[in-house]
Protein backbone atom coordinates (compact mmCIF):
# COMPACT_ATOMS: atom_id res chain seq x y z
CA UNK A 1 0.00 0.00 0.00
CA UNK A 2 2.75 2.46 0.88
CA UNK A 3 4.51 1.88 -2.45
CA UNK A 4 1.37 3.13 -4.24
CA UNK A 5 1.20 6.23 -2.07
CA UNK A 6 4.88 7.00 -2.57
CA UNK A 7 4.59 6.39 -6.32
CA UNK A 8 1.55 8.66 -6.63
CA UNK A 9 3.26 11.44 -4.64
CA UNK A 10 6.38 11.13 -6.79
CA UNK A 11 4.31 11.25 -9.98
CA UNK A 12 2.43 14.31 -8.74
CA UNK A 13 5.63 16.14 -7.85
CA UNK A 14 7.16 15.20 -11.20
CA UNK A 15 4.06 16.42 -13.04
CA UNK A 16 3.97 19.77 -11.25
CA UNK A 17 7.71 20.23 -11.85
CA UNK A 18 7.42 19.48 -15.56
CA UNK A 19 4.39 21.77 -15.88
CA UNK A 20 6.32 24.59 -14.24
CA UNK A 21 9.38 24.07 -16.43
CA UNK A 22 7.45 23.79 -19.70
CA UNK A 23 4.77 26.45 -19.06
CA UNK A 24 6.33 29.04 -16.77
CA UNK A 25 9.98 28.79 -17.73
CA UNK A 26 9.10 28.45 -21.45
CA UNK A 27 11.25 25.36 -22.08
CA UNK A 28 10.23 25.22 -25.76
CA UNK A 29 10.28 28.96 -26.28
CA UNK A 30 7.34 31.23 -26.83
CA UNK A 31 6.06 34.24 -24.96
CA UNK A 32 3.45 34.95 -22.35
CA UNK A 33 0.18 36.10 -23.96
CA UNK A 34 -0.67 39.76 -23.49
CA UNK A 35 -4.00 38.76 -21.91
CA UNK A 36 -2.11 37.82 -18.74
CA UNK A 37 -0.93 41.37 -18.09
CA UNK A 38 -2.11 43.55 -15.20
CA UNK A 39 -3.50 46.17 -17.62
CA UNK A 40 -5.62 43.56 -19.39
CA UNK A 41 -6.91 42.25 -16.07
CA UNK A 42 -7.82 45.76 -14.88
CA UNK A 43 -9.63 46.57 -18.13
CA UNK A 44 -11.58 43.31 -18.01
CA UNK A 45 -12.61 44.02 -14.42
CA UNK A 46 -13.69 47.54 -15.37
CA UNK A 47 -15.81 46.21 -18.24
CA UNK A 48 -17.46 43.59 -16.02
CA UNK A 49 -18.34 46.20 -13.42
CA UNK A 50 -19.81 48.50 -16.10
CA UNK A 51 -22.07 45.75 -17.48
CA UNK A 52 -25.72 46.60 -16.86
CA UNK A 53 -27.44 44.39 -14.32
CA UNK A 54 -30.96 43.61 -15.48
CA UNK A 55 -33.29 41.59 -13.32
CA UNK A 56 -36.79 41.57 -11.96
CA UNK A 57 -37.11 41.44 -8.21
CA UNK A 58 -34.13 41.95 -5.86
CA UNK A 59 -31.03 40.03 -6.86
CA UNK A 60 -27.75 39.07 -5.25
CA UNK A 61 -24.61 39.25 -7.35
CA UNK A 62 -22.37 36.22 -6.97
CA UNK A 63 -18.88 37.79 -6.89
CA UNK A 64 -17.18 34.62 -8.08
CA UNK A 65 -19.11 34.07 -11.30
CA UNK A 66 -20.78 37.47 -11.66
CA UNK A 67 -24.18 35.88 -12.13
CA UNK A 68 -27.45 37.30 -10.92
CA UNK A 69 -29.60 35.16 -8.66
CA UNK A 70 -33.16 36.06 -7.72
CA UNK A 71 -33.60 36.36 -3.97
CA UNK A 72 -36.64 34.48 -2.70
CA UNK A 73 -38.08 34.94 0.75
CA UNK A 74 -38.25 31.97 3.10
CA UNK A 75 -42.07 32.11 3.03
CA UNK A 76 -42.35 31.01 -0.59
TrEMBL record:
**InterPro entries according to UniProt:** DUF1138
- At the top level of its lineage, which domain of life is listed? Eukaryota
- What is the protein's given name? Uncharacterized protein
| UniProt organism field | Artemisia annua (Sweet wormwood)
Amino acid sequence: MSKWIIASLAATIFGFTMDHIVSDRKLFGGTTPKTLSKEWQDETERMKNAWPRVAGSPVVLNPLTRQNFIVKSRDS
